[in-house]
Amino acid sequence: MNRVKITMSYNGSAFMGSQQQPTTTETVIGTLIIALRRLRIHTLPKGSGRTDRGVHATHQVMHLDLPHYWTDLRRLVDMLNLQLPPSIRIRRIEFVENDFHARYSARKRVYRYVMKEGRSNPFEDNFVSFIPSLNREAIADAIKCFEGTHNFELFKKSGNDMEHFVRIIYRSYAYSHKGYFVLVFEGNGFLRSQIRLMVGFLLRISAGKATKEQLIEQLEGIKRHSTDIAPHNGLYLTHIKY
Questions:
Q1: Fold annotation for 108-241
Q2: Residue 16 burial (CB < 10 Å; 0-12/13-18/19+)?
Q3: What is the Cα–Cα distance from 84 to 106, expressed in whole angstroms?
Q4: How many CA atoms lie within 13 A of 184 on its CB side?
Q5: What are all long-range contacts of 19-25, with beta carbons under 8 Å and residues at least 24 apart?
Q6: Residue ranges of the domains in the chain?
Q7: What whole-number distance in Å separates Cα of residue 31 and Cα of residue 4?
Q8: 65 is catalytic
Q9: Could you say which of 1, 17, 30, 156 has the lowest number of CB atoms within 10 Å?
Q10: Residue from 52, 72, 141, 161 carrying the catalytic annotation
Q11: Separation between Cα atoms, residue 49 and residue 192, nearest integer Å
């Protein structure tokens, strides 16, 4: 067996999340497994981390142990893309050391949350979170509070199976681009729905329903001020750094 690193993109609105599930094959990994089996590859891919239903990825990473007879990786990319639906594209496949692990070898993960002010439209609704009104200056100021090492226990969805809630956010910032408002979070890891809960709090600040000081109190574990969770359609996994 030879271990390979797979970099892929997918439209999350077409799937019930990224992780394999016992009750459905309509997940990213479930769909990939079906395509791999058609090419006589029966080992299971391991992802860098899960994305929830409706969450997208431009650069998701997985690893896989390939049978020795698969040596032409460019051909494998082409063959897999022929087997996969248009909602998933394999960007590249490359040989890596056998101790490489898509999840445990990762040092940093980068997510973007894409918003647009105004009413939704049928051409972007699956890919952008539409907000009636945005206070961009307030969000750009408050988002910096997330930088650093924090216990994110009050920014996780119930049912999280993690035992430790401390995460490092190396960078968190906002910028405008061609009518879109984009939030960027770069960290060593994220809890279940953590980013959507962080964005939900920022949207409360934008709407004048919460303050930056309340955000800091929730980050410090003093008091939970918000359980708002931002819609899934604006969230993208954009980079895994090794």
A1: Alpha-Beta Plaits (3.30.70)
A2: middle
A3: 26
A4: 13
A5: 19/47, 19/50, 20/44
A6: 2-95, 108-241
A7: 18
A8: no
A9: 1
A10: 52
A11: 10
Q: Is 166 exposed, middle or buried (0-12, 13-18, 19+ CB in 10 A)?
A: exposed
List, as one string, the DSSP characters of the chain.
-EEEEEEEEE-GGGSS-SS-BTTBS-SHHHHHHHHHHHTT--SPPEESS---TT-EEEEEEEEEEE-TT---HHHHHHHHHHHS-TTEEEEEEEE--TT--TTTT--EEEEEEEEEES---TTTTTT-EEES---HHHHHHHGGGG-EEEE-GGGS-TT---S--EEEEEEEEEEEETTEEEEEEEES---TTHHHHHHHHHHHHHTTSS-HHHHHHHHTTS---------GGGEEEEEEE-
Match 């952008």 to its residue by tokens: 128
2-95 and 108-241, same CATH topology: yes
Query: Within 13 Å of residue 190, how many CA atoms lie on the same side as its CB?
Result: 29
Architecture of the domain delimited by 2-95:
2-Layer Sandwich (3.30)
Q: Who contacts 135 (Cβ-Cβ below 8 Å, separation ≥6)?
A: 205, 206, 207, 208
Per-residue tokens: 207: 């709407």
- Sign of the Cα pseudo-torsion (168, 238, 38, 22, in order): positive
Instruction: Tell me the per-residue pLDDT of 221-230, one tens digit each, with 9 for 90 and over.
Output: 999 999 999 9
Average pLDDT of the chain is: 94
Structure tokens at 118: 């105004």
Amino acid letter for position 227: T
CB count in 10 Å sphere of residue 219: 18
